[in-house]
Amino acid sequence: MGYTFFFDDYLDDLLLKAKKEKKIKDFKTWNHLPMEIELESLNKLDAVHQGIKEYYEKRSDGFELEWWSNKEKSLGGKMNLAETEYLFADMKAYYDEEILSVHGEDLQYFQPFDYCSNESRCGFIIRPDSIEKSMYYKSVDDYELDYLDLDYHGYTQMAIEARVFYDWQVVLLYYMNGVGIGSVETETFKTEMPKIFPDWTWENFIAKFESLRLSNKEK
Questions:
Q1: How does pLDDT run across 159-186, given as a tens digit for each residue?
Q2: Domain coordinates of the chain in residue numbers?
């Protein structure tokens, strides 16, 4: 039976190549043991976000990766996927009625999946009776949920394209909206990525995103 390649295998290959070429300095990755029991909550999530069940059951219950090109200048990347114990934890206690009345009921159903930086999370909206098709971005500094237009498959594929460079999700949000935070992050991303990964281009990054966007698939 052949080996099944997952998104983290491709990330490992890209980052190991960059390390050998001395483009990045520190590169650490951690896989956990695969799940040993079947979770109905994971089955329901996989019905909307295909592929996540296979990853957690066959590859790893959670995943961590971090790399640096220049730590002093905060040039690096990170991915920190929640273990199922935390992915499906009850988040309602974190938000009182006043916060929900202002920022929307969906906030209590936001389940962080990728703790992509100290300042941000990306995750799923898992209601008792439905699951949003797209993943969302949330800054820890506010209560807004930003639509990423990507499901689990699209998110992990874009993580490969971005080499999980810090704030790549903000770059996509700025590309889609053209306003708000993201202009500085986008400029840093477009400037530094080709230096670290010479075969990377902004044009290919955006083309990949457009091919994966849920809104384009629904047209």
A1: 999 999 999 999 999 999 987 678 999 9
A2: 7-217
